[in-house]
Specification:
2 domains, 2 helices, globular
Length: about 375
């Protein structure tokens, strides 16, 4: 009788393990269960829908992205430090749908790299994340790329964590009105963690925020051919340490910022806070403003260095101009090799400080960006 009980208990234990997935210990000794997934990873043909469970990649393997990889509601993609994913064609992109999560666990010594086989700007889509945080376009909308739903009322929505990630050569053109960016954030909530991310030599914007409440730290936008940073649709986030440097002879603005193009008074009003930022331009810039605030946006910016743009800061449009000094405040601004510091309408929004350090080292690459980023 005793032997039968032992056998029954052993069989039950094996069954429980099979249905709950793998178990490991967290740092505090707590047992962590990894939910099983039906997704099959094929490194040489990496694409498809991750619909359930947790997919964890292997840093020793190089993955060939051959199409759209979409992390759906309830699924998680975990990418360890040192992993490299190479996009094989312009149909390739990585997208996180509402309810999905991506965890990029790079380090300064071993960043995660998403790049393309051709190493040409616009040769693949880049990264798209769609969350459930508020936007002002509607309650919800469809992302202009990947065609996923985004928006809602979950301010603290969590789409995962991204640390030490380099996104190279993204920005595929779909139509004249639709282009991928390096990192596109659609209605992403502030429960999402985004730190130490570089967008390198894409054909559109480096980073674009479409509403949401996500906060960021330590972003680097280098050599992207449109704007280095862009926001619209009522984005509200708190941000620290942004560094942008234009290059390769093609570029537009350092920052292009709107509330909403079709309805400048739409709520929530775009009103991010950015501290410690450097924007370095090139004289060939097609839209040669370091910062362009327009179409009803507000902003609070402190400790900014702007270099080598024809115009440092421009506030345009009656509504945004009316916010100057109240809804728009730019303090401790330093201008280097800038022909026109700011337009007259922006004057009461700006206070200067020739000792401003920007992202850390004035116009030079900050120390926190060294080692894991690519430079011009």
């Amino acid at each position: 009788m005793k032997k039968s009980i032992v056998k029954l208990f052993f069989a039950f234990s094996i069954a429980a393990f099979t249905f709950t997935g793998c178990s490991s210990s967290d740092d505090d000794g707590t047992s962590v269960v990894t939910p099983p997934t039906s997704f099959v990873v094929t490194p040489d043909n990496f694409k498809g829908d991750i619909k359930d469970g947790v997919v964890t990649l292997d840093a020793k393997v190089t993955y060939k992205l051959t199409g759209a990889l979409i992390i759906r509601d309830g699924a998680t993609l975990t990418i360890p430090a040192g992993t490299k994913i190479i996009a094989a064609n312009d149909m390739s992109y990585i997208a996180v749908a509402q309810g999905g999560k991506i965890n990029v666990n790079g380090t300064a010594a071993s960043p995660v790299v998403f790049t393309s086989a051709t190493e040409k700007p616009g040769s693949w889509g880049g990264v798209v994340i769609c969350g459930k945080a508020p936007i002002n376009k509607a309650l919800t909308a469809q992302s202009e790329v990947a065609e996923l739903t985004y928006g809602g009322n979950v301010v603290d929505d969590n789409s995962g964590s991204i640390k030490y990630l380099r996104i190279e050569y993204a920005g595929k053109i779909i139509t004249g009105e639709k282009e991928f960016n390096g990192l596109s954030l659609f209605g992403v909530g502030k429960g999402t963690n985004i730190e130490y991310v570089q967008a390198f030599h894409g054909s559109d914007d480096g980073f674009e925020f479409f509403g949401g409440t996500v906060n960021t730290k330590y972003l680097v936008s280098t050599g992207n051919e449109d704007d280095q940073f862009d926001w619209t649709e009522g984005w509200n986030g708190s941000n620290e340490y942004w560094f942008a440097q234009q290059g390769f002879g093609v570029a537009n603005r350092g920052i292009e910022a709107d509330n909403l193009e079709d309805n400048e008074t739409a709520n929530p009003i775009a009103n991010p806070t950015i501290k410690n930022m450097t924007l370095v331009g090139i004289k060939q810039s097609g839209e040669p403003q370091g910062i362009e605030l327009r179409r009803g946006t507000k902003a609070t910016i402190d400790n900014v260095v702007i270099s080598s743009f024809d115009t440092g800061i421009r506030i345009s449009g009656g509504l945004s101009q009316g916010f100057a000094g109240s809804g728009i405040k730019i303090t401790n601004a330093r201008f280097d090799n800038v022909k026109t510091k700011f337009n007259p309408e922006a004057a009461k929004a700006i206070t200067e400080n020739t000792a401003a350090t920007g992202a850390g080292n004035g116009i030079a690459l900050p120390d926190w960006a060294k080692g894991w980023t690519r430079t011009l």
